[in-house]
User: Which sequence fits this backbone?
């Protein structure tokens, strides 16, 4: 039997993109889907778009303390066997939820699954393909490498069993950029992820996104997150060196 899946979308003033996000979830036609949109009282047309879907989704519209708080609200409301979050400027590719549901149905002991994702720009054109291929290559190595040296997990292409929150709690709301990396490292203490080579999602980078405009701050917080979980001086040095190299690359391609 296919597990139920809950998808959480945190949103704030993403009227330009959120319709595509919502459509990408609902068009999956997954038979046991719960979709929760948590909006921080957007001042653009985001709420009007979300409300237009009626009871096809659950809309929570209230002030929050930022993206991580919004995600946690959705995760606490969720009742699906499998959970994930999909930001309001990203979108699923066709067939994603069915592939995810079938994986967990066939692997009852698997705790979490991560797949591949395209990187796209504001208009949905594929960009930074070498970056995607590089991370894909790293994910073929052991978790200590691809989780310690750098965060190669694609956040919108990652799914886990909701039951793990009873053991690990929820996302760390003190983190603005790397709540996902911290969560992966906490999940890793329970079990390495199952890695799929299938493209699950499109991850959008645009001028207003944190990954597009604040990447240097993001990598700084990324390193601080690593320090919480890895004591090895070698891993810490390699991670810091890798971050510095990636920042220089991003300065040239953005």
Assistant:
């Amino acid at each position: 039997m296919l597990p139920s899946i809950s998808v959480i979308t945190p949103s704030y003033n993403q009227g330009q993109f959120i319709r595509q996000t919502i459509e990408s979830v609902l068009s999956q036609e997954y038979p046991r889907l719960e979709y929760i949109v948590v909006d921080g009282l957007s001042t653009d047309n985001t709420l009007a778009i979300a409300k237009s879907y009626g009871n096809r989704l659950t809309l929570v519209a209230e002030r929050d303390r930022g993206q991580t708080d919004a995600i946690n609200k959705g995760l606490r409301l969720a009742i699906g066997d499998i959970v994930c979050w999909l930001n309001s400027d990203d979108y699923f590719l066709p067939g994603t939820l069915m592939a995810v549901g079938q994986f967990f149905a066939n692997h009852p002991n698997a705790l979490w699954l991560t797949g591949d994702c395209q990187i796209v720009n504001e208009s949905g054109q594929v960009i930074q393909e070498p970056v995607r291929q590089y991370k894909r290559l790293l994910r073929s190595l052991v978790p200590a490498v691809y989780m310690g040296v750098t965060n190669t997990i694609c956040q919108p292409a990652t799914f886990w069993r909701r039951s793990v929150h009873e053991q690990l709690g929820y996302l760390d709301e003190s983190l603005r950029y790397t709540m996902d990396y911290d969560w992966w490292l906490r999940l890793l203490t329970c079990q390495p992820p199952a890695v799929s080579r299938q493209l699950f999602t499109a991850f959008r980078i645009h001028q207003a996104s944190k990954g597009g405009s604040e990447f240097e701050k993001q990598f700084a917080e990324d390193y601080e997150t690593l320090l919480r979980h890895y004591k090895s001086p070698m891993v810490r040095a390699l991670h810091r060196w890798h971050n510095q190299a990636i920042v220089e690359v991003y300065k040239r391609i953005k």
About this structure: The mean pLDDT is 93.
